[in-house]
Design goal:
Layout: E1 17-18, E2 24-25, H1 27-51, H2 54-60, E3 61-69, E4 72-75, H3 76-81, E5 90-100, E6 103-112, E7 117-127, E8 130-140, H4 143-157, H5 166-176, H6 187-196, E9 203-205, H7 208-218, E10 248-254, E11 257-263, H8 272-290, E12 297-300, H9 309-320, E13 328-331, E14 336-342, E15 345-350, E16 353-356, E17 374-378, H10 385-393, E18 399-403, E19 411-417, E20 423-432, E21 438-439, E22 447-448, H11 462-472
Parallel strand pairs: 3-8, 11-12, 12-17, 17-18, 18-22
Antiparallel strand pairs: 1-2, 3-4, 5-6, 6-7, 7-8, 9-20, 10-11, 13-14, 13-20, 14-15, 15-16, 19-20, 20-21
Helix pairs in contact: 1-2, 4-5, 4-6, 5-6, 8-9, 9-10
């Protein structure tokens, strides 16, 4: 869309908060300060309930405080006067805090001194300079129900759900978690269930805090199931090319012919500005190499373990060519969402509607002088989104693949967040190329050459030599 040239006078207003000492804070700083304060108060509340300390609770609870626990309602006076504190004897807390001006919420779970788990939702209000807890809702988290819910999500959403013997898997998973006191104790069983789906990519994701809590919960008890340290998608790929993070480009020569060589490394970030810089760097490299009028192009995806595919697609767009179908994602029903590239923007077409997944480039998107022959290099460490970029080249005319079979993670994964913050990162679809061919287990090269046959970088690479020999024939 082109906007008419206009002149605007803009008045920029920055909202501020005034601290007790008269200094002003921006909303972001004020919110961060409030969240830090609430987190500290939640620790105090954990101590107060755990130690059954009415004196400390008087300082934390508002006059009209109400607690809802297992459908029972208790007011502040009942809490303070009860012989036994009507709440968990809190040992450890994992909470997510959000603030909204003079109100705040904390959601998550508490572990009591017996290792049992309570889900809580606390509401805080600010009166003057003090935060007070106004409402707490809590309920015991039942490990069996937690596992059953996770299994329900797998059975409804997993890509290979029609190939799984669900009664057998449910029985085995619940048996592994039968002695669990809390959700932390069930993670090994969930990992077992996700692995049993058979898609090679579904796995459990834990925050560093949850990993630490799981390790502490298992310490000295020999809990069944896979260790918290095992968080990978599979065997770690071996490739000397994994360490590349920046796009690179140069001219390769063979005899009297020269070829443009472009390295497309992994891009792990979701930051839009970083993604823009990545895409623009790739396009700038392509433009510079194209000015040398090469006889063909080599796109090196070796060691590209994945990340965010969209800046990669936008960056190599000039070599892919503009299209509304560069491949896509397909779910179990057969519905496909197509990858697109046009005018520097990588996008997705779903239900007939196209949406850009990257923003417009700062400058003009580059267009090649002509559609060239392209050799694509892949290896066993080309994985996930790196495989998606490789698949985008499948079906393109005058294109050939060299190297090794890729990692086998050419699937579509979706996050399903459980109540304690653990995430089922589950395969719900597969990648397909522009001709509709499905890639459930990665991409095979047209000309196989194992990494063991390859030379160390900096010396003549036989995979590159093979690619150039083919390009000479085009």
């Amino acid at each position: 869309m082109t906007l008419a040239r206009s002149v605007f006078v803009v008045s920029l207003v920055v909202l501020t908060h005034v601290r007790a000492d008269g200094q002003q804070q921006t909303p972001t700083v004020a919110r961060q300060a409030a969240e830090k304060a609430i987190s500290a108060l939640e620790e105090q509340a954990c101590t107060a309930f755990g130690a059954k300390s009415p004196d400390l609770l008087r300082k934390l609870l508002s006059d009209d405080f109400v607690m809802s626990r297992d459908f029972d309602l208790q007011d502040r006076d009942f809490v303070l006067q009860s012989d036994e504190m009507p709440g968990p004897a809190c040992q450890q807390a994992q909470l997510e805090v959000s603030t909204y001006g003079t109100a705040a919420s904390a959601y998550g779970f508490l572990l009591d001194t017996h290792g049992e788990q309570e889900l809580i939702s606390d509401n805080w209000v600010k009166s003057g300079d003090e935060w007070k807890m106004a409402f707490r809702r809590s309920a015991r988290l039942e490990p069996k129900s937690y596992v059953e819910h996770a299994l329900d999500l797998m059975q409804r959403n997993s890509w290979k759900r029609n190939e799984v013997n669900w009664p057998t898997l449910r029985t085995a998973t619940l048996k592994m978690a039968v002695s669990a006191k809390n959700s932390l104790d069930t993670y090994g069983a969930l990992r077992f269930a996700l692995t049993s789906l058979g898609d090679h990519h579904s796995h459990l994701l834990l925050s560093p805090a949850l990993q630490g809590m799981e390790a502490k919960s298992q310490s000295g008890r020999g809990a069944a199931g896979e260790s918290a340290a095992v968080q990978s998608d599979g065997a770690a790929p071996q490739s000397v090319y994994i360490g590349r993070y920046q796009p690179e480009g140069h001219i390769e020569s063979q005899g009297d012919r020269k070829f443009a060589f472009v390295v497309v490394p992994k891009f792990p970030s979701l930051d839009a500005a970083e993604g823009m810089r990545y895409s623009e760097t790739l396009q700038r490299i392509i433009a510079e190499l194209d000015s040398a009028t090469p006889s063909g192009w080599i796109v090196d995806l070796r060691g590209n373990v994945g990340g965010n595919m969209w800046p990669m697609l936008a960056g190599v767009g000039p070599l892919l060519g503009e299209s509304s179908n560069l491949g896509g994602f397909r779910d179990i029903s057969g519905a496909t969402a197509n990858w697109t590239y046009r005018d520097g923007i990588a996008g997705l077409v779903m239900n007939g509607k196209e949406s850009g997944q990257t923003g417009p480039l700062t400058g003009k998107a580059y267009r090649l002088r002509e559609a060239p022959a392209v050799a694509v290099l892949i290896d066993s460490a080309t994985g996930s989104s790196g495989e998606a970029v490789a698949i985008a080249f499948r079906g393109r005319s005058r294109t050939k693949f060299f190297g090794e079979h890729t990692g086998g993670f050419s699937t579509v994964n979706q996050f399903f967040v459980l109540v304690d913050g653990a995430i089922l990162n589950m395969t719900v679809g597969v990648d397909v190329d522009r001709n509709g061919i499905v890639y459930l287990d990665g991409v095979s090269p047209d000309e196989l050459q194992g990494q063991s046959d390859s030379a160390v970088r900096g010396q003549k690479d036989p995979v590159i030599q093979s690619a150039m020999r083919w390009l000479r024939q085009q």
